[in-house]
TrEMBL record:
Residues 1-26 form the signal peptide. Residues 192-236 form the LysM domain. One of its GO terms (molecular function) is ATP binding. It comes from the Eukaryota. GO terms for biological process: response to other organism. Residues 370-654 form the Protein kinase domain. This is Uncharacterized protein. The keyword Nucleotide-binding applies. Gene3D superfamilies: LysM domain, Phosphorylase Kinase, domain 1, Transferase(Phosphotransferase) domain 1. Keywords: ATP-binding, Cell membrane, Disulfide bond, Membrane, Nucleotide-binding, Signal, Transmembrane, Transmembrane helix. Residues 246-272, 309-339 are annotated as: Disordered. The chain crosses the membrane at residues 277-301. It is a single-pass membrane protein.
Length: 676
């Protein structure tokens, strides 16, 4: 008996050897389950070797959606693929949400990269670690679902497995491949990396994509009796583009549970649970091989049957769409109109406009290929004016992953907050497309020549404009602090970040530093601390600079400084001429208490107010506004009013200002006529 067996084995081995030799050119080795053995090196786990005729090609991956990776843009970020290409490949809109567990197609560019002296076909993505519990293994197996291996991650990142820390950026080589000469000759255009799921077999995968099982076997250097494992990619050679419909095909219901949860062998019962299914696979594999040998012995080496995976042990079956899924950030991307139902402020745009995802070519066309003449903004900022379907927009180029700013702006919706109308992610850059603010930023109007001024006379903002701007900013901050869930702190409010639209209504922009205020901390005003103090000098509250304390009062302080700038026309930091005592720099926030103290407040205030207003302002209202600003810039954060209070006060000042009639406003000055 045993002699016959070994003979049969020998013959089987020989047969598969021969196959390997004949077709070696057309193959990549299947990763098997070797990717689970992170600390051992196998040839197949490093990557697919570059044996194709092209060094790069278009290719496809499959991915099973689960929050937070359940929208084209989120999956695009994860996989470094193009959002609209993903949407298109799956026949959904750019802003669609995929149902949990739906398999989707991800179009990628696959190219040959040389790593450690060898060349592998891969598509590079990058991933920033978010949780202390993340390891190379669960990044490869869980986050990327087996599209990469822990061995390849380790080989292509400088950090050891134990040195991974939150916020580290990792290079993620996703396995892919380009057709070999043999495959090309057979008409193969794409190699799709299909993620094996429970219940899949080579024939069922081949049937799904309407190709022959043999080509799939060949493409993966597999022999027909080889077991395939879930969470591993199988290459499927395709002559036409894949369609998402092929992925949606209902799987044949898993075969009736033939071998019930195996009576554990001593080895299995010793193994820890996380590796159990591997052993189950191997164990049944061996058993099946035995069976097969018997079968083969009878059939005298006829075509062996493909073996599919053992039926699903209930504990490891794919998770059911979870009612309360992914507390860790999944809920972050959802925006439901209901969540705004508590808002009462007038400025809110109830209809949440969708954010478009643009192609790079569209952005390039809109900005005339980032022509210098379309550059707006000052200094080193990369902001361009662009025309999208005839509408002006501002395009800001940012490096790296700015998904947090996109996600904030997607969630918040207020007429005094700049609207993000779309974005484009390409080659490490993100292009954010905002609504266009015709009149530029407030800082330019107060401290520089405003845009489009061909006149020799300096245009200036009228009193009513200034009050309206302060009111609008307070409205926006009030919304951020009190009406969004979670509340946001802007953290970088300044007059260069306040833009003016065609009718001089203010819009807050630049949410790059914005952060959420955790729910519990909002209760008692408990302190959030940071050692990473960032912001703009002159606008930062003392407790933040000195101790890194983060509260909403940070924005209130900056708002006070902005109000002082509107009143005085001076900059947040005055250097030189305004600092009488030769101190070099004078903070605007420090100068106001002196103005409002002691005698001659009236004269001192008149001296403080922007001379370009030419006394065309109601002094009593200017006094109220200065008083408010002084409270807002109080050193003690507890003495500063909440923004809601400041907003109320400004509403009163605004309505009184609108009633105020400057009888001589048009005489002797070039003050702007107010819009409303
Ligand atoms: C693995 O790669 C090495 C070269 O790096 C080669 O010598 C060896 O034969 C390969 N092993 C297998 C099993 O392909
Ligand atoms: C795409 O989806 C629409 C409905 O949403 C359907 O009418 C259309 O046939 C689909 N196209 C393809 C190619 O599947
Ligand atoms: C692949 O690369 C081409 C050219 O570099 C680019 O136009 C295309 O958008 C890329 N495809 C994806 C899915 O990223
Ligand atoms: C991908 O990353 C590897 C390093 O891990 C690098 O050598 C290679 O050039 C990259 N490939 C592309 C196409 O950027
Ligand atoms: C690997 O990831 C899958 C999900 O992609 C998960 O169901 C499975 O339990 C993971 N395996 C291990 C050993 O963690």
């Amino acid at each position: 008996m045993s002699r016959t067996m070994s003979l049969v084995f020998l013959l089987i081995c020989l047969a598969s050897q021969i196959r390997v030799i004949v077709r070696v050119e057309a193959q990549q080795s299947y990763v098997d389950n070797e990717q689970l053995d992170c600390y051992n090196h196998y040839n197949s786990t490093d990557g697919n070797i570059c044996n194709g005729i092209a060094t790069s090609c278009n290719s496809y991956l499959t991915f099973r959606c689960a929050p937070p990776y359940n929208t084209p843009s989120a999956v695009g970020f994860l996989m470094n693929s193009d959002t609209s290409a993903i949407a298109e490949a799956n026949n959904v809109s750019d802003v669609a949400t995929f149902p949990t567990n739906q398999q989707i197609l991800i179009p990628i560019n696959c190219s040959c990269s040389s790593v450690g002296g060898r060349s592998y076909y891969q598509h590079n993505a990058s991933y920033t670690l978010k949780y202390p519990s993340e390891t190379y293994f669960n990044l490869a197996n869980n986050t990327y679902q087996g599209l990469t291996t822990c061995q390849a991650l380790m080989a292509q990142n400088p950090y050891g497995d134990r040195n991974l820390k939150v916020n580290m950026n990792l290079q993620v080589p996703l396995r892919c491949a380009c057709p070999t000469a043999t495959q090309s000759a057979a008409g193969v255009k794409y190699l799709l990396s299909y993620l094996v799921a429970w219940g899949d077999s080579i024939p069922s995968i081949a049937q799904r994509f309407r190709v022959t099982a043999q080509t799939v076997l060949d493409a993966n250097k597999l022999s027909p009796n080889k077991i395939i494992f879930p969470f591993t990619p199988i290459l499927v050679p395709l002559t036409v583009e894949p369609s998402s419909l092929e992925l949606e095909l209902q799987q044949a219901p898993p075969p009736a549970p033939a071998p019930p949860p195996q009576s554990p062998t001593p080895r299995e019962s010793k193994s820890n649970s996380s590796k159990k299914w591997i052993l189950v696979g191997v164990g049944t594999g061996a058993a099946l091989l035995l069976l097969l040998a018997l079968f083969a012995a009878i059939a005298l080496i006829r075509k062996a049957k493909t073996v599919s995976l053992p039926p699903i042990p209930t504990s490891t079956s794919p998770p059911k769409p979870n009612k309360k899924s992914a507390a860790d950030g999944g809920d972050y991307m959802e925006t439901t109109p209901e969540s705004w139902s508590t808002i009462s402020s007038q400025g809110i745009r109830y209809a949440i406009e969708s954010v478009s995802v643009y192609k790079l070519e569209e952005v390039q066309r809109a900005t005339e290929n980032f022509n210098e003449s379309n550059k707006i903004g000052r200094g080193g900022s990369s902001v361009y004016r662009g025309l999208f379907k005839g509408d002006a927009a501002a395009v800001k180029i940012m490096k790296g992953d700015v998904s947090s700013e996109i996600n904030i702006l997607k969630r918040i919706n207020h007429s005094n907050i700049i609207r993000l109308s779309g974005f484009c992610v390409h080659g490490g850059n993100t292009y954010l497309v905002y609504e266009y603010a015709d009149n530029g930023c407030v800082a330019d109007w107060l401290h520089h020549q405003p845009p489009n001024n061909n006149d020799n006379n300096k245009l200036t903002l009228s009193w009513k404009h200034r009050v309206q701007i302060a009111h609008d900013v307070a409205d926006a901050l009030n919304y951020l602090h009190n009406f969004t869930k979670p509340p946001y702190i802007h953290k970088n409010l300044k007059t260069t970040n306040i833009l003016l639209d065609g009718s001089f209504r203010a819009k807050i922009s630049n949410f790059g530093l914005a952060r959420t205020l955790e729910d519990e901390e909002e209760e008692q005003g408990a302190l959030q601390l940071t050692r990473h103090v960032v912001g703009t000098q002159g606008y930062m509250a003392p407790e933040y600079i000195e101790n890194g304390v983060i509260t909403t009062k940070l924005d209130v302080f900056a708002f006070g400084v902005v109000t002082l700038e509107l009143l005085s026309g001076r900059e947040a930091i005055n250097s030189g001429k305004n600092a009488v005592d030769g101190g070099g720099e004078e903070l605007l926030s420090a100068s106001i208490s002196e103005v409002l103290q002691g005698d001659n407040v009236r004269e001192k205030l008149q001296g403080f107010i922007d001379p370009s207003l030419k006394h065309e302002y109601p002094l009593d209202l200017a006094f109220s506004m200065a008083q408010l600003a002084k409270c807002c810039v109080d050193r003690d954060l507890n003495s500063r009013p909440a923004i809601a209070e400041a907003f109320m006060t400004l509403s009163k000042i605004l309505s009184s200002s609108l009633d105020w009639d400057p009888s001589d406003e048009l005489k002797g000055s070039r003050s702007l006529s107010h819009g409303r």
